[in-house]
Amino acid sequence: MDRLKNELIKISRRCYDRGYVSSTSGNISVKKSDEAGIYIKASGTCFGDLEQEDIVEVDWDGSYKGKKPSKETGFHMGIYKMREDVNAVVHIHSPYCIALSLKYEKMPLSTVSAEKSFAEVPLIPVCGPGSDNLQKYVLEKFSDKNIIAAVLKGHGIVTVGKNLKEAFYKADLLEHNAKITFIKNSLP
């Protein structure tokens, strides 16, 4: 098995085990070692059950063989094409970030770690999953090389990194920050 596919499966299962996705939601991708395209989760597959055959290889022109890639492939590909510093993209439906996105106009950074790690976490307006509008807004925000995470209002988060672990750790940190914010707001 390809090392990157194996790592993609491992990180996907961690996201599922931590409750960051449910059912077949979310998607994750990584730039191929030969840089001839990306590996991305197939549409309709679950992070928790991901197997090698559930990972689709997509060329830079958008062509693929086998299973259909995620409906969010467009913004994954767009981020890679714009950002040479990005080799992995994680899009999960983390519950605390989603909850806060429905309350705030800007993602609060409540922990020291979050303040240190994120210059800003922009909020993207509600758009249909897989829509051209969602792709447009995601690419608009990630065109700024200082942006490593964004929250999709009522939908989830997108994080980027130089590898899958880094992109996952950013997502994990952002969700932890959201959980702390939620707890802080519930205190008397």
Structure report:
The chain has 188 residues and is of the alpha+beta class. It has a single domain, classed as 3-Layer(aba) Sandwich (L-fuculose-1-phosphate Aldolase). The chain is built from 6 helices and 7 strands, in the order H-E-E-E-H-E-H-H-E-H-E-E-H. The protein has helices at residues 3-17, 73-82, 95-101, 112-117, 132-142, 164-186; strands spanning 27-31, 37-41, 55-59, 88-92, 123-124, 149-152, 156-161. It has a 7-stranded mixed beta sheet, with helices on both faces. A hairpin with a 3-residue loop joins strand 6 (149-152) and strand 7 (156-161). Helix 1 runs parallel beside helix 6 (164-186), helix 2 runs parallel beside helix 5 (132-142) and helix 3 packs across helix 6. The radius of gyration is 16 Å and the shape is globular. The protein starts with a helix and ends with a helix. The model has no long low-confidence stretch (mean pLDDT 95).
Instruction: Give the topology string: H per helix, E per strand.
Output: HEEEHEHHEHEEH
CATH class: Alpha Beta
What is the alpha-carbon Rg in Å? 16 Å
Q: Assess the beta-strand content as a share of residues.
A: 15-25%
Fold-level CATH name? L-fuculose-1-phosphate Aldolase
Please give the domain count.
Answer: 1
Give the number of helices.
6
CATH superfamily: Class II aldolase/adducin N-terminal domain
List how many beta strands DSSP finds. Answer: 7
